[in-house]
Design brief:
By secondary structure, this protein is of the alpha/beta class. The chain has 21 helices and 19 strands.
């Protein structure tokens, strides 16, 4: 009779809760029982583990009763991440490795039938959980996952390519040289190694704003949005350059801090979409307009992050915005305010960060040519109203900058010189955002409550101007506050300590309603 304990982690939203894999071997009818609220993928581990141990040249206790408990019992476990700890627990309980040496490690990895280790989701979340809990435990992960986890400062991460590479570290002295798999595989020197963090310091090449000719008003609005973290809606006829501008928006944003990069990478790792070459690059998510509300905000069982969380610290670009389902657009209202999304299900509740910058693009009417100087609009007033009404008032109130992108005449399009480069605009945006961070510790968009009155710093003339303008235009309290935040960003771009009338007047121009025929 033998008993062993192996530590691992299970994903619960963005958190990685500790799981203890308890393996008990006893005499009796041969069986392999897996308990502890295991999902289908985890239950299938019985066959993978059995074949992996046998094909690695190790002894599987076929003639004993095997019981594997995944504690805590009320925590759901999914995916194949527990294959490796289950296999090690069986080997420790059967005396083939020293179970006392396993206490200083946590393991995760999916086993192939040959014993090779395959990567799993959420490696960064595991490393962040150890870092947050100030645990000195070492992580043992498959190739790919180990490099991700090593990005967390102070982490102790080891990479293992095969089950034999792990077993060799915990067998009695002198026995490692006898390990040979059924296919002739043996532990290699590079199969087990300590992984050091390798962070990319080069900025990925992206489309340049110099490619966009004309559109000075739209470029100015994008500069303000990038400097202050504001949301943006581009409206114009087909082919005027809305998508072209939006695809270049992420290049205007300041470089990410280490904490921001870790948060964004952890969410990408949780969804299996993180790549090492994308480290430190602000993400741009561009879902198709057929995406559902669950695809945008997240959901499922267990809950998974949606596009707004995958765009955390980056850009969410919604092209053809009125074509999205109404429920999907309305689901964006709370995250635009709070910067987070809470997904509640009967079994569990998960919270994901969602501090993204929304960039939307739309036509002014169904045919797209309302107000165009070169094409006649074929839409009736009722069609225009129903099309524009797909974006509700509460959602439009949460979008800071409403910008028209007119079509350019062919002569101007072909003869205009190249515009200002992305690098020079990003430099101004970075300096402006740094002024805000030095003053208030957050971007202007993130100001809430009393902080708005404290840091906006309106002069006397601007206060009078705002009172008259807000009353005449019928702004809501939210609309007034958002105009103030945009004005503060304009003042930061100008290097002004106070928010003046000219800054407020420019901010007012960006809260215009959609063009209408009446």
């Amino acid at each position: 009779m033998g008993l062993s304990l192996v530590q691992s982690r299970a994903l619960r939203g963005l958190d990685a809760a500790r799981v203890t894999v308890e393996v008990h071997l006893a005499n009796g009818l041969p069986s392999f029982t897996l308990v502890g609220l295991a999902d289908v993928e985890v239950k299938e581990a019985r066959e993978r583990v059995r074949c992996a141990i046998q094909n690695s040249g190790l002894q599987f206790p076929n003639n004993q009763r095997i019981t594997v408990n995944l504690a805590p019992a009320d925590l759901p476990k999914d995916s194949g991440r527990l294959d490796l700890p289950i296999a090690l627990g069986i080997l420790a309980a059967s005396g083939q490795i020293d179970g006392s040496l396993l206490a200083r490690y946590e393991f995760a990895g999916e086993l192939s039938l040959t014993g090779a280790l395959h990567p799993v989701r959420g490696a960064l979340a595991m490393a962040l959980a150890l870092h947050t809990g100030q645990c000195m435990t070492s992580l043992v992960l498959p190739p790919g996952n180990a490099e991700e986890a090593a990005l967390v400062p102070g982490s102790l991460v080891y990479r293992a390519r095969h089950l034999l590479d792990v077993v060799r570290q915990f067998v009695p002295a002198g026995a490692a040289q006898d390990l040979v798999g059924a296919d002739g595989a043996t532990p290699t020197d590079d199969g087990w190694c300590r992984v050091e963090p390798v962070r990319s310091t080069t900025r990925a090449s992206s489309p340049d704003m110099a490619d966009v000719k004309g559109q000075a008003g739209a470029k100015r609005a994008m500069e303000i949005a990038a400097a202050g973290g504001h949301s943006l809606l581009l409206t114009g006829p087909p082919g005027s350059g809305k998508s072209m501008l939006a695809q270049r928006f992420a290049g205007l944003l300041p470089p990410m801090s280490c904490d921001e990069a870790l948060q964004t990478a952890a969410i990408g790792s949780l969804s299996g979409r993180f790549k090492m070459e994308n480290w430190g690059q602000r993400p741009t998510c561009n879902p198709h307009h057929s995406a559902s509300a669950v695809a945008l905000v997240g959901g499922g069982s267990p809950p998974r992050p949606g596009e707004i969380s995958l765009a955390h610290n980056g850009v969410l670009f919604l092209d053809e915005m009125p074509e999205f389902p109404r429920a999907a657009l309305e689901a964006l209202r709370e995250p635009l305010e709070t910067g987070a999304i809470t997904i509640s299900r009967a079994a569990q509740r998960s919270e994901f960060p969602a501090r993204f910058q929304l960039v939307g693009a739309m036509n002014p009417c169904p045919c797209g040519y309302l107000g165009s100087a070169t094409h006649n609009c074929r839409c009736t007033p009722d069609q225009i109203h129903r099309y524009q009404a797909k974006l509700s008032g509460p959602l439009m109130d949460r979008i800071d900058l409403h910008v028209e992108v007119p079509s350019l005449p062919n002569a101007e399009l072909l003869g205009a010189p190249a515009g200002e480069s992305t690098d020079s605009i990003r430099q101004r945006c970075t300096e402006s955002r740094q002024r805000a961070l030095d003053r208030q510790g957050c971007t202007n968009m993130a100001l809430q409550g009393q902080a708005i009155d404290q840091y906006i710093q309106l002069d006397a003339d601007a206060i009078k101007f705002l009172n008259v303008a807000a009353t005449r235009l019928g702004w809501s309290a939210r609309g007034t506050h958002r105009a103030l935040k945009v004005a503060r960003t304009i003042a930061d771009l100008a290097g002004s300590k106070m928010t003046e009338v000219s800054h407020l007047a420019e901010a007012m121009q960006y809260r215009r309603t959609l063009p209408s025929r009446y």
